[in-house]
Hints:
Layout: E1 7-14, E2 22-29, E3 34-38, H1 51-54, H2 58-62, H3 67-77, E4 84-87, H4 90-103, E5 112-115, H5 116-126, H6 134-141, H7 150-162, E6 170-172
Amino acid sequence: MDTIRRHIAIDFEYASSTPGTICAYGLAFEDGTKEHGFVRLHPSAPEQKNTRYHGITQEQTDGGMAFETLYERIRELTATGEIFLVAHDLKSDRRAWHAAVALFGLEPLPLKWIDSLPIARTEVAANGGGLTGVAAMATRYGLTIDHHNPADDAFISLQVVLRNPPTKIIVDDSSQELPGTKHKRR
């Protein structure tokens, strides 16, 4: 019997340490395809300061898509409510997403998330220990990636989830206080 998978991995790169300054995104799908793009910053956000970490320039960010376009893409991809977004360090990526949603004045989406980092830690611990970051997991799986390319990083987080048993902790935004936002749940 075939298992129907419903995971999409997501990863963000940030322009600065200011919450919500997503300057690039990557998506990875179970069929092996990837999507990557640059994202324009909110007018009130500081300029690109993290170029030395990920190589993304202010010009690339300025020429990127509007955050609202990325928001609509995520809304479309998760419209059934049966899709789980996978992130390798959920705390960071989920906080960035919600901060950007709030910064742009958009309604929070009822997303369901899976953190691949604790899954990687369990896998690595069961096999003698070691590092569990995206680059280390790519090496463990024998995969070559361009680390800090958010689509490649998302692909590895998806591999962690797909290669491990389905005992995952799911964070459901429709029933949680949203991090990094000023929205209040009623």
